[in-house]
Amino acid sequence: MFSNSSKYALTAVIHLASQTDEAHKKMVKDLSLYTDIPKAYLAKLLQQLSKHQVISATKGPKGGYYLTEENRKLPVYRIIEVIDGTHRLESCVLGLEDCNAENPCPLHDLVNPSKAILLNTLKHMSIEELAGKLNKNDGFSIPGT
User: Fold this and answer.
1) What angle (nearest 5°) sits at the alpha carbon of residue 144, between those of residues 138 and 145?
2) Which of 80, 84, 81, 108 has its CA nearest to residue 94?
3) What is the DSSP string of 93-115?
4) pLDDT tens per residue across span 123-132
5) Which of 9, 19, 6 is nearest to 144 (CA)?
6) Strand, helix or coil at 37?
7) From CA 130, how far away is CA 24, in angstroms rounded?
8) Under a CB-based contact definition with an 8 Å cutoff, are residues 64 and 27 in contact?
9) pLDDT tens digits along 102-126
10) For residue 18, is pLDDT > 80?
11) Which domains does the chain have, with CATH numbers?
12) 65 CB-contact burial (10 Å; exposed 0-12 / middle 13-18 / buried 19+)
């Protein structure tokens, strides 16, 4: 359901949410080491997220990536929207163009209720909330957090 790019972006943003603020930024090379995401790939994802104001960045010797309070309040859905667009999450799981309630694919009725719950959660859960859930260590961990 999520592309590798979205998975990497989610991992990086969650790490930034739990480890950074304006006074404590992370450089790409450090974030790459902590998250085990290839440096060049991560740099492109972070540039994209920064360009769309999902994360913040400053240039220079004391520069790096970080999250502001405003960034932290954004819905998790925004990360996926910036990286992959919405089509992947909201389209037919079998990739059929004509799949809808009136003309459902074989999996439509099985998958759509769960997909609707996931989309609702992603649209209403903030980055800060997601990072908080993972920081509680409820059996999940993100490399480097």
Assistant:
1) 40
2) 108
3) TT--TT-SSSS--TTHHHHHHHH
4) 999 999 999 8
5) 19
6) coil
7) 20
8) yes
9) 999 999 999 999 999 999 999 999 9
10) yes
11) 4-135 (1.10.10.10)
12) buried
The pTM of the full predicted model, rounded to 2 decimals, is 0.86
Tokens at 76, concatenated: 């998790």
CB 25 within 8 A of CB 58: yes
Residue 104, both tokens: 């459902």
Max CA-CA distance within the chain? 57
pLDDT in tens, 42-78: 999 999 999 999 999 999 888 999 999 999 999 999 9
- What is the per-residue pLDDT across 81-95, written as a single tens digit (0 to 9) for each? 999 998 888 889 898
- Cα 57 to Cα 28, 68, 70: the distances in Å are 11, 10, 13
H or E element: which one contains 60? Answer: none
Radius of gyration for the alpha carbons in the chain, expressed in angstroms and rounded:
17
